[in-house]
Write a structure and sequence with these properties.
This protein is an all-beta fold. Helix content is 2%, strand content 59%. A hairpin with a 4-residue loop joins strand 3 and strand 4.
Length: 320
């Protein structure tokens, strides 16, 4: 049965799209992603905070981004499945100044300091239509056409305790892109008796500049994974992912680019390759809990950026 792929879905926790749904079938899921960054790099090479202080007032040695996602999918017909997703994003970045430096904060002269920037809020909402080009018992080929609606803020400012007092935080600390983004993709999935495998090419295309005066770089993602169904209630997976991100165009004129690296548009974009291992458990026929952990195997950034340390994905889904 073609719909069995949804009932015992060995898709890794970090993959959003792998198959369509039969007519009248619903799937709801909660997803959680936690990405941790440690240390800094420039064009693929590790650099020290002391090196960064030659160009910037502050550096960063620790960063994290957590995202909560609610997703719903519905099979409209044999060929078409609709999907929507709501996100909530929390970001933090540890900022440090060199020993012996002085800074004016709220009118007070301070010595060397450590400061943590934190932002949180709802992100952009995405709407996606999946079209089944091929949908047999073993082979599934999908075209996906998505639209990201700019509901996430690009105007988040620092409070009185922040180093960005009443000023917009840098680009990566905002909740959304501020632009209408088009997200086309092509996904092939094979489903055997025990083995499930997939290849996916997915992109995000920014259609214009946001109200602040910039647009984030376009993204291209290449995903390959294989999973094995050990028992009726357990599967494991191995996944490789390569993400290439373009540079930011334009800039936020309210930011001083040399306060710290994330305030400079020259320090965005690059290529990262991750390797993930995952486990899924199935219960009550149509429920799934999955976890996936990943480590970087290749990173080459544009300019100075935080190094990816690890990434964890969690999912709970139900089909009915």
């Amino acid at each position: 049965c073609v719909s069995c792929i949804c009932k015992k879905d060995a898709t890794p926790a970090g993959v959003m799209i792998s198959h369509a749904h039969i007519k009248g079938e619903w799937m709801f899921s909660y997803r959680y992603m936690n990405m941790a960054n440690r240390g800094m790099q420039q064009n693929g090479s590790t650099i020290s905070n002391e090196y960064i202080y030659n160009q910037y007032l502050f550096s960063s040695d620790r960063m994290s981004m957590q995202m909560h996602m609610l997703m719903a999918m519905y099979g409209v017909s044999k060929k078409i499945t609709l999907m929507t997703m709501l996100t909530y994003k929390q970001s933090s970045m540890n900022m440090i100044a060199p020993e012996g430096s002085t800074h004016i904060h709220n009118g007070v002269v301070m010595g060397s300091m450590v400061h943590e920037m934190k932002t949180k809020g709802f992100g952009d909402i995405s709407l996606t239509a999946l079209y089944s080009i091929l949908n047999t018992e073993k082979h599934h080929l999908l075209f996906s056409g998505g639209l990201s609606i700019p509901t996430g803020s690009v105007q988040t400012k620092g409070d009185a305790e922040s180093m960005y007092v009443n000023t917009r935080y840098p680009y990566m600390m905002q909740q959304g892109s501020g632009t209408w983004d088009v997200k086309p993709g092509l996904t092939y999935t094979f489903k055997g008796d025990k083995v499930m495998a997939s290849s996916q090419l997915f992109s995000t295309i920014r259609t214009g500049y946001n109200q602040v005066g910039y647009k984030l770089g376009n993204e291209l993602t290449f995903n390959n994974w294989v999973a094995y169904q050990w028992t009726s209630w357990l599967s494991t997976s191995l996944r490789g992912e390569v993400i290439h991100t373009g540079s930011i165009k334009g800039n936020d004129s309210s930011l001083y680019a040399y306060t710290e690296p994330s305030a400079n548009t020259a320090n965005y974009g690059g290529t990262t390759a991750m390797l993930y291992g995952g486990v899924n458990t199935f219960f009550l026929t149509n429920n799934k809990i999955g976890i996936e952990a990943g480590l970087p195997v290749y990173q080459k950034s544009n300019g100075i950026q935080a190094s990816v340390y690890a990434n964890i994905n969690l999912v709970y889904s139900i089909v009915f």
